[in-house]
Design a protein that fits this description.
This protein is α+β, with helices and mostly antiparallel strands. Helices cover 49% and strands 17% of the residues. Strand 6 and strand 7 form a beta hairpin. The longest helix has 55 residues.
Length: 371
């Protein structure tokens, strides 16, 4: 190689060419990595910007909610009512009113009347009803002020009612034993439920007849306390919940299994009492009594699904004929297994299966007679 002469490309060795190509590849790779990092940082910054904007929006909404849940200042209301401050009290006419935060007491005329809201103060001083008091607040404090006063007053009234009044307790429909034979016939003949199962549920007090010959399915919470009932007509298409049923905390359910003392390790969910019984009887006719304690529960809506309790159950089977509901339950209970219904509902499948069994037995008997 001559001194002072530039090295031409065609004079490079194979190894040198490979080295230059590798340098270019590394440079391109670093460039791509830097571009990818820049894009990731830009995306992260955008996400942070959106999160900050959402937090600011949530904070503004929280401030509004806090403001709306706070009553009007009673001192401001007293001033608008024409009272004037004298020491620690507001006076005017026959009123000597002491205000302490949201509470007021009027010691005028030797009395000690009082209240705990802006509306109470307006009603007391102006001697008016609640409607007029709200209208007065609207005139003096605007629509928003009147709404704040009304909301705060309603919240306080609700708090007192909740603390002092008892909610009415659910009462089951009165049993009519004279109608039981008709209801029993309906369950066995119309619904295809085996006689032994009907008798078992009746003996346990879970199914009976009311005065209108409806089937009454008793609903209980998971501790066994009765809190509702589902009714199904035997002479018409009526079905629905008895008034007062606590739908979020009661279900029609029963258990089967060879070890009654054991805790249920399997739960089978379906959409109605009839379907719950039908699924149980289909399994019984194919497999017999479950080896492990199994609870069959009617849950017609995911809003009443006892998710927390069911998460502790090892095996959960979802037997809903409506695919959308079944998928919704599957999302709430990932450990659950979907059971496929071969008919429009599980009761129809039970009836069809029972007919097939009867035909099979009839055919066997006929063949035995021919022998």
């Amino acid at each position: 190689m001559e001194e002072g002469r530039d090295l031409e490309v065609d004079e490079l060795s194979v190894e040198q060419l490979k080295a230059k190509a590798a340098d270019r590849d590394r440079a391109n790779q670093r460039k791509q990595e830097m571009e990818a990092t820049a894009k990731a940082l830009a995306l992260e910054n955008e996400q942070l910007r959106r999160q900050i904007a959402q937090l600011e929006q949530d904070n503004q909404q929280l401030q509004k909610l806090t403001e709306w849940s706070t009553d009007l200042a009673l001192d401001d209301v007293a001033w608008e009512l024409g009272l004037w401050r004298k020491g620690n009290e507001w006076v005017g006419g026959n009123h000597i009113i002491n205000i302490d935060a949201s509470q007021f007491t009027d010691f005028g005329n030797g009395s000690s009347l009082g209240g705990n809201s802006a509306i109470d103060l307006v009603k007391h001083v102006n001697q008016c009803n609640q409607t007029t008091a709200i209208a007065w607040l609207g005139e003096r404090f605007g629509e928003a002020g009147a709404q704040r006063g009304a909301i705060a007053h309603a919240q306080k009234v609700a708090d007192v009612i909740i603390q002092t009044e008892s909610a009415p307790q659910f009462t089951l429909p009165v049993e009519d034993k004279a109608n039981w034979s008709g209801v029993e016939h309906y369950l066995k003949q119309k619904r295809g439920i085996p006689s032994d199962c009907v008798q078992m549920l009746h003996n346990q007090g879970l199914v009976y007849a009311d005065s209108k010959a409806n089937v009454v399915f008793v609903m209980r919470d998971l501790d066994g306390k009765t809190k509702g009932a589902f009714l199904e007509g035997t002479a018409n298409k009526f079905s629905g919940y008895e008034l007062g049923t606590v739908r979020r905390d009661s279900w029609f359910y029963f258990t089967l299994g060879k070890k009654p003392s054991d805790k249920a390790s399997t739960a089978v969910l379906s959409s109605s009492p009839i379907d719950a019984i039908s699924v149980a009887m289909l399994e019984y006719q194919v497999k017999g009594i479950p080896e492990n304690r199994t609870v069959y529960i009617a849950v017609n809506d995911t809003s009443s699904l006892p998710v927390e309790r069911l998460r502790n159950v090892i095996h959960v089977q979802v037997a809903f004929s409506q695919p959308t509901v079944a998928r919704a339950v599957k999302e709430l209970l990932p450990q659950s297994k979907l059971l496929k219904c071969e008919s429009e509902d599980w009761n129809t499948q039970l009836i069809n299966f029972s007919h097939q069994l009867q035909q099979r037995y009839s055919q066997q008997n006929h063949e035995e007679l021919e022998l």
